[in-house]
Amino acid sequence: EDNLLCSGIQGDDNLQSMLVGTVMRKIKSRTWKKQRYFKLQEDCMTIWYKSKKAGNTHSTFSVGDVEAIREGHQSEVLLSIADEFPADRCFTLVFRGRRGNLDLVAESAEEAQSWIKGMKKLIENLENMGEREKLDQWIGDWFKKADKNNDGRMNFKEVQDLLKMMNVDMNEHHSQSGSLEDDEFVLFYKMLTQREDVLRVFQVYTADGQKLSQSDLEDFLREEQLEGGDIQKHAKQLIERYEPSDTAKVLNAMTFDGFLMYLGSAEGSIFNPQRRGVFQDMGQPLSHYFISSSHNTYLMEDQLRGQSSVEGYIRALNRGCRCVEVDCWDGANGEPIVYHGHTLTSKILFKDVVTAVGNYAFKVSEYPVILSIENHCSVEQQRVMAQHLNHILGDKLLKSTLDGKAPIGLPSPEDLKGKILVKAKKIGGLEETFNGMVEDSLTGEVSDEDEAAEIDENNLHRESVRRRLKSKQRLSKELSDCVVYCKSVHFSSFKHSRIHSKFYEVVSFTESKARKHLREAGAEFVHHNSRQLTRVYPTGFRTDSSNFNPQEMWNAGCQIVALNFQTAGDGMDLNDGLFSQNGRCGYVLKPDFMKEAEKRFDPETPQQRDHYQPIILTIQVQIYSSSLFPGFNPVWYDTLRFTIHTPELAMVRFVVEDYDKTSKNDFVGQYTLPLSCMQQGYRHIHLLSKDGTSIPPSSLFVHIRFTELE
Question: What sign does the dihedral 139-141-145-151 (CA atoms) show?
Fold first, then answer.
């Protein structure tokens, strides 16, 4: 087996036993537990499984689709059967994107370990493969799909069918023998995907038409890629890293293959590698950052009948989300529950949500997580909530100001590393805690305005809502004490806030209210957000869990722009794009002109700000895709020019659709990134699917230039 993924399989007992296959139980609920036969295919890439009795129906998934393996009772489904099957026999496969988990119980602890370790090894092999190897692997997979009669050859009919699948038109006279062998197929594919576009660039810089000498490559890096720094050193590194031919390496030169490999690599991609890790100052007040935030985190689908699940929290936190929402209601047996009130969405226990947040809060980012609590509970169950927060989170829960003194401003993400902050209503303010003003009574009253106010704004059954709004809500002192830097308050006006509001007070707006404020008083809104946190969430009318455009809220400096993480589309693409920088840590520093109280920036009239310097972004697009859609390397050149007034805030989204004149175009892929993270010159954009996962090897080849507007 010359397959790279199968390297080292001979000596690996775990992989050997996976190739033989194992019977395990697939668990969907306490009552749905069925035996399935699982087996690793010869390609070391596909897992195949079927039920013992059913006819020939079987299912498969690719190792590349698996994002993580959780051992033991680490999903709701497995927790629900914990009394029946011990943890050492259980594991969960978590898939990329929005596909559901696969919960499995092996016959023995040894068999479970064998699958857990084997899967981890396969995933590691896959991650260590280079671009060229992935391409060869991918081509081989297509060959297997197309070789219907499994004779290791492709007859003419199979080739034609395959090319139809891949959107390539082929005439009868291409093939002499009428069939192709596996290796010939790889060559045939490479012939189809000759990169004319890249070749043209290569030929401009090569002195001898065969290769780039080190100085040719340096010219290319300086003139096209606009690189600074030690270019000589970088050219050497690139040859060392990407040139496949040893002969060329000895000559310090790069062949066309090496040039292709470099341009297809992370360094040749559009995203600047220097902005991938945490590179921003994390020591500024919380209000100076955009914070990745989720709305109705417990929902997996729509807002009326959807499934509530602890999995929603795990998924959001694992995507770098730093603010999750918890809607709490009185439940049976004195235990508070979480669900979308007054709807048919299913219910989960508050304590299970807190446990999941405690376990997953800091797996992908060490910076603080905000629990945005919407509290509809009685005082008794609020006390239970406070107990759960204290017991389950322990030291992770922020219980008092950082230095124990009366604070004068918000702390920074750096100061709050590893801490979970509760955002909710509070009796009195922070100051009283320090001058002994809070009475010792066990409850207090706060005015009750939550999403009911939003419903009122949308004119639904107005009278009953009005009556609810006037009520006072009783708050338990224990729960109130869990709130330190994020006290939820009602908004009156920017003027009122400027005079009276405290830095730890947080206002929430529906998207429509926020839009109204940013149109009518943009500069005031930005100023307000320079010292206080603001949360914006989708209107109640979005019962399908759709998202609004978060960009206009970020433009006004709103930090906590809460989106439905469970819903793919433009809104989440922008969110993933903004937070793909700075180590995906969930915090991105705002530009300076939005942080300083005395500067006036109005997102509606960006031309009026101090030091206004627009730029022109020129993108030459060359569409190259060996994906199944637009056929092979259709190269078309198109130059797009944009004038960008506020480059520091701009996001750029590339979307590829398959044009269909009879119906809506098919979405092929997209890629979104902040303008500030773009590299200039010739770059590849590796497209992502609807779910934000990669779809190899589909890419756009572009040339990027920024020029200042004279």
Answer: positive
